[in-house]
Amino acid sequence: MIGRPAVWAIADMETGEIINEYRCREKDFSDADFEKKYNVRSDKKYDTSKAYYEAAFSILDTVRSHLIVSGEIDRINYQEYLEKILVNIPDDYQKFYRDLSI
To answer: What is the pTM of this model?
Structure first.
């Protein structure tokens, strides 16, 4: 059991450089309770292979490239990326990924 994220950041889409970092108690991204502990244990077998992460991040790179070129988010591919990543995230913590997502 762990607490919820306490910090989040915004990064430059082209360079990956951190632009802003925020403390959740000052500028939050989620309505999740700070006092609650979240279960990150799971009996699931997660895919931690290099191939899995290469495939997931390849989808995200496609979304990122589309955003840089067109100024628009490719919501279909982003949803595919999010679904792929969430498979490897404990159920209680998936909320934070969704809250930080489009």
So the answer is: 0.86
